[in-house]
């Protein structure tokens, strides 16, 4: 039966599905990216930004994943069984899966992946999965995660869309790590085709994907369009189908435009600014707190965010089950800032923002806040790649960052940021509390530990996160089945074009 006929009528669609065994993938989706990816060799990239993860997620997979309702579901792993002593867990693997280069997916591939990610010389920050001591092969399709302590968040850690869960072909990684950096090879619903730096990346449908019902697209083209206005204009012109990270003005305008669909997800993330705790003047927590209190959150939300988000009141949003009430959370307080400046005298620092239209505007707004409060500040603009490198290597006093909501168990976000060296803060303050929460099975007691951590974070003024991230994606109305934007990522596996 020709596939054109399959489009006509519900009964024919059902009949075609039965005859073909799966729905024929149709169409090309074009996604506008705000930057080039960093590269897909985790050991070389050291971290995956949002752009990199969006592409990697189409090509590579992990053992488990979160579905639309927030439940953990199987991917390359089928079942996780925890040992009685909670110091290990076995994962049964999906059989009959192959990587895009023909390499079999099996226990050896999983062991090779996590050995590579957690090796001391990888340069990857593995604090989030530190309880994993090692991974061993039990049989061809079973692996055992051996832990150095009981860890309630193990399955959640294996389910989040993070670089350490994107399993690549061990053959490709070992044979040519440099080539893998530019051309990732996974088991995912799409096969990587090409990357023209500064222009585009292309992935095509994996005809041998283990889920015969997916994907629904023939091809995805990622166009590199750093300018927000260009991405928005391309969407309106029909040249782009999906545009992540729109400006607040564009979100507000899109809400009034029937030709654009707005997809929204309230997260516990935030646009943040890192203080370098080992550099003056930010060795002093009073100074850090005063800088936070110089930011008028309501004005920022009105002027820049156009009412599309809300102030932070803690490390978890009000919609989260882990949200803590009644924290002493630093907020706009110009009188307290004046007291600190009177006591300490002139305070000078340079703050970094990104050299994009939105980044320049945001940098100018914060420059106004800081100078209005009495700080002696200068604004430095860097492109996104330079800003990431500045953060990784400590070449900043204050730089703009994203406190990304990884989703899943709160242990993952907090461990990632509070044991990270990016802010150069005293991580030993938080490690004991985080380790205690990792082993606590009672959710009420765990929540209290996380609230204690949140209050300590506020007291230390670890970094500045004045407003909560509400994630938005603008899309053509023909783009259907857009999953919740966890981690601010567009899940391509289920998307279809109507």
UniProtKB/TrEMBL annotation:
Pfam families (UniProt xref): SBP_bac_5
Signal sequence interval, chain numbering: 1-25
Name of the protein described by the UniProt record: ABC transporter substrate-binding protein
UniProt keyword terms in alphabetical order: Peptide transport, Protein transport, Signal, Transport
Every Solute-binding protein family domain range: 72-421
Family: Belongs to the bacterial solute-binding protein 5 family.
Domain of life of the organism encoding this protein: Bacteria
Record Gene3D superfamilies: Dipeptide-binding Protein, Domain 1, Dipeptide-binding Protein, Domain 3, Periplasmic binding protein-like II
């Amino acid at each position: 039966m020709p596939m054109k006929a399959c489009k006509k009528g519900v009964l024919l669609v059902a009949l075609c599905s039965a005859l073909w065994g799966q729905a024929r993938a149709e169409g090309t989706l074009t996604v506008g990216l705000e930057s080039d990816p960093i590269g897909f060799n985790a050991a070389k990239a050291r971290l995956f930004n949002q752009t990199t993860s969006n592409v990697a997620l189409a090509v590579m997979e992990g053992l488990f994943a979160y579905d639309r309702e927030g439940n953990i579901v199987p991917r390359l792993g089928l079942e996780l069984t925890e040992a009685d002593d909670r110091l290990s867990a076995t994962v049964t693997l999906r059989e009959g899966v192959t990587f895009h280069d023909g390499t079999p997916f099996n226990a050896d591939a999983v062991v090779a992946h996590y050995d590579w990610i957690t090796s001391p010389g990888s340069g990857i920050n593995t604090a989030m999965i530190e309880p994993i001591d090692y991974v061993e092969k039990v049989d061809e399709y079973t692996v055992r995660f051996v832990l150095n302590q009981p860890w309630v968040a193990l399955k959640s850690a294996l389910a989040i869309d993070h670089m350490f869960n994107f399993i690549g072909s061990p053959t490709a990684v070992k044979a040519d790590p440099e080539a893998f950096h530019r051309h990732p090879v996974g088991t995912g619903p799409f096969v990587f085709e090409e990357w023209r730096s500064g222009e585009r990346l292309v992935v095509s449908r994996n005809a041998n994907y283990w889920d015969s019902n997916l994907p629904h697209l023939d091809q995805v083209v990622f166009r590199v369009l750093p300018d927000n206005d260009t991405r928005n204009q391309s969407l309106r012109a029909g040249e782009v189908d999906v545009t992540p990270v729109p400006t607040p003005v564009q979100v507000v305008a899109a809400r009034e435009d029937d030709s654009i669909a707005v997809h929204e997800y309230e997260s516990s993330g935030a646009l943040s600014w890192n203080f370098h705790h080992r550099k003056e003047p930010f060795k002093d927590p009073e100074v850090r707190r005063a800088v936070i209190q110089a930011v008028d959150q309501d004005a920022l939300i009105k002027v820049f965010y156009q009412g599309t988000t809300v102030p932070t009141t803690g490390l978890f949003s009000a919609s989260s089950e882990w949200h803590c009430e009644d924290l002493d959370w630093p907020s706009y307080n110009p009188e307290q800032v004046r007291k600190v400046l009177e006591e300490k005298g002139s305070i000078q620092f340079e703050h970094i923002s990104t050299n994009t239209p939105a980044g320049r505007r945001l940098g100018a707004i914060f420059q106004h806040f800081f100078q209005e409060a009495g700080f002696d500040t200068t604004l430095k603009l860097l492109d996104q790649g330079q800003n990431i490198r500045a953060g990784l290597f400590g070449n900043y006093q204050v730089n703009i960052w994203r406190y990304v909501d990884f989703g899943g168990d709160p242990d993952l976000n907090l461990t990632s940021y509070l044991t990270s060296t990016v802010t150069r803060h005293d991580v030993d303050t938080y490690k004991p509390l985080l380790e205690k929460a990792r082993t606590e099975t009672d959710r009420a007691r765990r929540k209290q530990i996380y609230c204690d951590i949140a209050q300590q974070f506020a007291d230390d003024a670890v970094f500045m996160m004045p407003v909560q991230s509400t994630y938005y994606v603008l899309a053509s109305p023909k783009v259907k089945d857009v999953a919740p934007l966890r981690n601010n990522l567009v899940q391509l596996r289920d998307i279809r074009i109507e």
